[in-house]
From TrEMBL:
Pfam families: Aa_trans (PF01490). PANTHER family: AMINO ACID TRANSPORTER, AMINO ACID TRANSPORTER TRANSMEMBRANE DOMAIN-CONTAINING PROTEIN. Keywords: Membrane, Transmembrane, Transmembrane helix. This is Amino acid transporter transmembrane domain-containing protein. The chain crosses the membrane at residues 149-169, 175-195, 226-247, 253-274, 286-306, 352-373, 385-406, 426-447, 476-496, 502-528, 566-591. It is found in: Membrane. Its main location: membrane. Belongs to the amino acid/polyamine transporter 2 family. Residues 42-54 have a biased composition (Low complexity). The keyword Cytoplasm does not apply. It comes from the Eukaryota. Residues 28-39 have a biased composition (Basic and acidic residues).
């Protein structure tokens, strides 16, 4: 799923961009005034003056971040310059070894940050002037992460591994292993599809900072808004999922003596307090600690599953509830539950809904693609992202597979989602729940922080003219918006305490698209635009002019059917179609699961009885 670990990168303060943006805006306003005065004088004495801003030559920092007048060729030109500079950077002997992948160095090769407030010789406007050198130095200063750091951050997950046992229980050994393997391979391919456009569009002059930036530069403003909306929805639902899982864990620790809706409310209040932290650097060491806490929870859970029977009290929320009409989890007249059973093929769920829901849990494990552009944006050499990403995906594949199969083998149809709630031994159960709750509350704070910032910056600031978070008014508005954000998360938690149904919704509507639909969509647009350029086409930095020999369908056809890449474009179209079809099936299955749960009163809203209490 979406990883909060990208916020733990030991890099420069990202607010440096906010400072530079404000200074650039003031400089641009001064230049507009100067240009107006020059044009007025020119009209009097018969001369004309054109600024670099008007022609597009140089001064990349003087344009607003999402400027529709900047062409693909201009982005691509500066990206090539940046890649050449990165390739010229010397690598240490340590960076070329396999150990650097697993044990990243925090200090090796970090670029010294340029002080954006430092006054330089020759600057007549004083501290409020942003030179080209300052802008590029600031961009370099934010790129400090090595491939080892990225490997570590991609493997940071909170909910992904704990839903996989449920996926195997609803799909069986064979289909479960096969689908999880396919999803892993395609996730690695999607990472490549995101990496290639990033390498061709990101530069020190025009840095790519998010998924939305890639969408904007290849499709336009509407794609950027679509990405930002889905990202905000996914992060909000992730917060709701964490409130649900922690509410269930707390109710289990309290032996169901505490009202379930109160358990959820407690975590919503905790999240509200944690969410008051605006600067993500204060979350960094906690995010790193969450990785190890999560691993401890996994091993504790496996030990409990191997040495104690399943949690029969929570059988109603287990995978067996969707198999054979619940017959495999129904006790006999003497109150004895059926033995643990596993299936080599698809279990009899009565329809495809249960199995598709299980597939959505497997997809949930590969939701980190949503923040891959953010990872690359903070790397010294984004070229190294591929090796880190593929190694991380292999690591996730092996350990998640091992954990999921281990838990399914011991608990079979009694597997619960999240899996740490399915342990019957109270001591081991409590230990796992405590570790899980601690890890999850860190994640909730991070998800809430990212999600609310995405929503605030792209909706409140851009569309509603709210004050930026770097201002005093913005800070006070942040304090007021936080309770609203967490109140919505609490409403989700209390209104839909069906964890598997809600995770399926998140996977089908958000995670699946960021991992399997959007990467090939971006790749097609990038390859078409890039390969459509002929000799003589491109951007001239001296004049600021873009040269294109033709336009329209002829240009699109040349770019799509370019030698050596037409097959990838064709494969990507099929890839997009398959992802959309799976998303439709997943959306239908998850909605029907929630609908059935409400109709049968398995899931009710705002009640005291925990879903795990019989």
């Amino acid at each position: 799923m979406a990883k909060p670990g990208n916020l733990a990168i030991d890099g420069a303060d990202p607010r440096i961009y906010d400072q530079l943006d404000r200074k650039s805006a003031e400089r641009e306003a001064a230049e507009r005034s100067l240009t107006h005065d020059q044009e007025t004088l020119g009209a009097i004495d018969g001369t004309t003056t054109t600024t670099g801003v008007a022609t597009g030559a140089g001064g990349a920092h003087r344009r607003r971040e999402h400027d529709p007048t900047i062409s693909f060729e201009q982005y691509h030109y500066y990206a090539q310059q940046t890649r050449a500079e990165e390739d010229a950077q010397p690598k240490t002997a340590y960076e070329t070894t396999i150990w650097s992948l697993f044990f990243p160095s925090k200090s090796d090769g970090i670029v010294k940050r340029a002080d954006p407030n430092e006054k330089r010789d020759g600057e007549g406007v004083g501290r409020m002037v942003v030179s080209d050198e300052e802008w590029t130095n600031a961009s370099r200063a934010l790129r400090t992460a090595t491939r080892g750091a990225i490997f570590y951050l991609i493997t940071t997950d909170i909910l992904g591994p704990f839903g996989l046992p449920y996926a195997f229980a609803t799909m069986g050994w064979g289909p479960g292993i096969a689908l999880f393997t396919v999803f892993a391979a395609l996730a690695g391919y999607s990472g490549f599809l995101l990496w290639e456009p990033f390498m061709g569009l990101d530069s020190y002059e025009y840095p790519v900072r998010s998924f939305g930036d890639l969408g904007y530069r290849l499709y336009g403003r509407w794609m950027r808004h679509l990405f930002n909306i889905l990202q905000s929805v996914q992060l909000l639902l992730n917060v709701g999922l964490i409130v649900i899982s922690n509410g269930e864990a707390l109710s289990q620790v309290a032996k169901f003596k505490l009202c379930f809706v109160v358990c959820c409310l407690i975590w919503a209040i905790v999240g509200f307090l944690v969410g008051q932290v605006r600067t993500l650097q204060k979350f960094g060491w906690l995010a790193n600690a969450a990785v190890w806490i999560n691993l401890v929870c996994m091993f504790v859970t496996m030990g409990g599953a191997a040495h104690s029977p399943p949690n029969y009290a929570g059988a109603g929320s287990s995978a067996g509830a969707t198999i054979s009409g619940g017959a495999l989890i129904t006790p006999n007249a003497q109150g004895v539950f059926p033995p643990v059973q596993t299936s080599g093929s698809l279990p009899d769920t009565g329809s495809f809904i249960g199995s598709v829901g299980g597939a959505m849990q497997a997809i949930f494990a590969y939701g980190g693609s949503m923040v891959f552009p953010e990872f690359m944006a903070e790397m010294k050499r984004p070229k190294d992202f591929l090796t880190a990403m593929w190694a991380a995906q292999a690591f996730i594949y092996f350990w998640y597979m091992f954990y999921g199969l281990f838990m399914y083998g011991y608990q079979g149809q009694y597997t619960v989602n999240p899996s740490y709630l399915g342990i019957s031994n109270y001591s081991i159960q409590t230990a796992g729940n405590v570790f899980a709750m601690l890890s999850a509350v860190i994640a909730a704070g991070l998800y809430g922080n990212i999600g609310l910032k995405v929503m605030y910056n792209n909706v409140f600031v851009e569309l509603l003219n709210a004050p930026p978070l770097t201002t005093r008014a913005g800070k006070w508005m942040w304090v007021g918006v936080i309770p609203v954000y967490w109140a919505i998360a609490f409403a989700l938690a209390a209104g839909i305490p069906n964890f598997s149904g809600l995770t399926s919704v998140v996977a089908a509507f958000c995670i699946l698209h960021f991992t399997y639909t959007f990467p090939p969509l971006l790749s097609i647009a990038y390859l078409v635009k890039k390969n459509a350029m002929r000799e003589g086409d491109g951007y001239d930095p001296a004049t600021g002019q873009v040269v294109r020999g033709d336009s329209g369908f002829a240009r699109f056809r040349r770019g799509f059917f370019s030698p050596g890449r037409w097959w990838m474009n064709s494969v990507n179209i099929l890839y997009i179609g398959g992802a959309l079809a799976l998303s439709g099936l997943g959306a239908y299955a998850s909605i029907m699961t929630l609908k059935t749960a409400f109709q049968t009163s398995v899931t009710t809203s705002y009640v005291c009885k925990s879903p795990l209490d019989g």
